[in-house]
Every structure is written in structure tokens, then in C-alpha cells.
Amino acid sequence: MLPIAWKVLKPNVEINIPAGHPVAVIIPISLTELQNFEVTVENGSILEKFQNEIQENLQYVMEKSKIGKFTHLYRKAKNSRGESVGNHEVQTLELKTNRKS
After folding, report:
1. How many domains does one find in the chain?
2. Which residue among 6, 34, 75, 91 sits deepest, i.e. has the most Cβ atoms within 10 Å of its Cβ?
3. Cα–Cα dist 71/73, whole Å
């Protein structure tokens, strides 16, 4: 079983998801690598810059979502200004399901 956390904004309202629209992402991470991970922030400057970038990207995503568009920022490893923020080994992760009797 894979748990999914959805942010539902209105209670008791039917949600219609058109065919072909992604509804979840599987991100294979190692919890062992995250265990006891430590970040040091000095003078708050890094944190403030990061918070500003998050707000800017969130605003961009919300604007695109209102008109039914996907930004694919994570997939492209870009921020809302189109600047590279990293890279991925692959852009599309293909998973297979094996059924055992």
C-alpha cells in the first residue's frame, strides 16, 4: 500500500480528476540517509532566501494551476524563473508491476 496525502480545500465537494492527469508521485528515498540529517543556518540569511524562493515558486504554481496547467518545475529541475536548480539522473521514472499468483 502507498499512502497519498492530498490537500483538499473544500469539505463535502466532489472532486473530478480528468483521465490522464497525474494524481500522485512516487519518490524513492532512503529514510536511513535522512535520519539525523542536520542543517546549520547562520544569521538566518540562507533561510530567508529559501523562504522567498518557496513563496515565489508557490505563487507561480498556483497561477498555472488556476488555468489548468502543470509547471513540471521539479521534473525540469527549474525554478519559477526558468533557472536550473539541480539535475536528475532521469526525467521519467518507469516502474513495473509484477503479479504473483
Report:
1. 1
2. 75
3. 5
Q: Is residue 62 part of a domain?
A: yes
Residue 71: partners with Cβ closer than 8 Å, 6 or more residues away: 60, 61, 64, 80
pLDDT tens-place string over residues 3-41: 677 778 888 988 888 888 888 777 777 777 778 888 776
Residues composing the chain = 101
Which helix (H) or strand (E) segment holds residue 61: the answer is helix 45-66
- Could you tell me the end-to-end alpha-carbon distance of the chain, in angstroms, rounded to an integer? 18
Q: Which amino acid is at 25?
A: V
Q: Which three cell numbers stand for residue 10?
A: 473544500
Range of the domain at 71: 50-84
Distance CA(26)–CA(62), nearest Å, equals 22
Is residue 11 situated within a structural domain? no
Q: What is the pLDDT of residues 35-75, one digit of tens each?
A: 888 877 666 666 677 788 888 888 988 888 888 888 888 77
Does 58 reside within a domain?
Answer: yes
DSSP summary character for residue 89 = S
- On whether residue 61 sits in a domain, the answer given is yes
